[in-house]
Amino acid sequence: MSQKYCVLGLGIMGSRVSARLAKNDYDVVGWNRTLGPNLDDLAKTVPLASSPCEAVQDADIILMFLHDGPAVRQVLIDNGVADCIKAGSLLADMGTNTPDEARFISSNIPQTIRFVDAPVSGGPKGAENATMSIFLGSAQKDLDLAKNALGAVGRVTHMGDVGTGQAAKLANQIIVACSIAGLGEGVAYAEALGIKAENLFSAMQGGLADSEILQIMGPRIASGDFSPHGRAATHLKDLDCAFSQLEGVEEKLKATATAKNYLQKLVDGGEDLDHSAMVIAARAALAANTT
């Protein structure tokens, strides 16, 4: 008998994962806190439940793409949805939270549920193509089930016990943030010397500075289209999570602190921008310090 998937949270990532599962003929149901016109196309292939309890009650594999730890707690614990999950089901938190939050959730839901933390990286394209990197934190007894179930949506790497998936994802977010910030600063510097961003990107292809970050973020920067694929506000939240885990880390990791400052400036500006818009903050910083 085929396993039934449930996806809680149908934003940028969850909607695409749901659509991919349906496209590959998996039995899948979805739920989102709000149901708007943006989900009309998804609803043609993925049944949408009216409540999270309805969504999870028959599911064998539950994938959560919720915004943060408080949202996960609210749905699972405060709203009692964990009590609607049948014994033996796999519950995977695929959003980015802290290791402490993952361990708290694991300890405060019915122990008949097989909970894993499995945050992802790869963006909308990775979700659409099932090529996401999945950082798995799992008890050994749940490892085979988790790898098989999550393998339908991405490439799974087991990091260790519950909580280690989130730790690895936070490290990933630090690396990505610093990479985008460095790209933004390089572009700002080149532009100040009269070089167009698109020409710089073309010259860098195949060189040491070429990267997945450059291939994805470069066209956005060159076009000035910063509509959100990976939200600056979400990446800022992730860095806040990272800094909360080690005392004094914000003062010690200077490059990460700079990237976080760029993201903060974007969020403070009030627009819903992609994290590639860090180039805007880098341009402003360079202009303010150039005489």
Note down, in words, how this protein is organized.
- Keywords: NAD, Oxidoreductase.
- Its EC number is 1.1.1.60.
- The chain is α/β, with parallel strands linked by helices.
- It folds into two domains: 4-161, 3-Layer(aba) Sandwich (Rossmann fold); 167-288, N-(1-d-carboxylethyl)-l-norvaline Dehydrogenase, domain 2 (Orthogonal Bundle).
- Helix content is 50%, strand content 13%.
- The protein is built from 14 helices and eight strands.
- The protein has helices at 12-23, 40-43, 52-56, 69-78, 99-107, 123-129, 143-150, 164-192, 197-204, 212-223, 232-243, 249-252, 254-268, 278-288; strands at 4-8, 27-31, 61-64, 90-93, 114-117, 120-121, 132-137, 154-160.
- The strands form two sheets. It has a five-stranded parallel beta sheet, with helices on both faces. Strands 6-7-8 form a three-stranded mixed beta sheet.
- Helix 1 packs parallel to helix 6 (123-129).
- The mean pLDDT is 96.
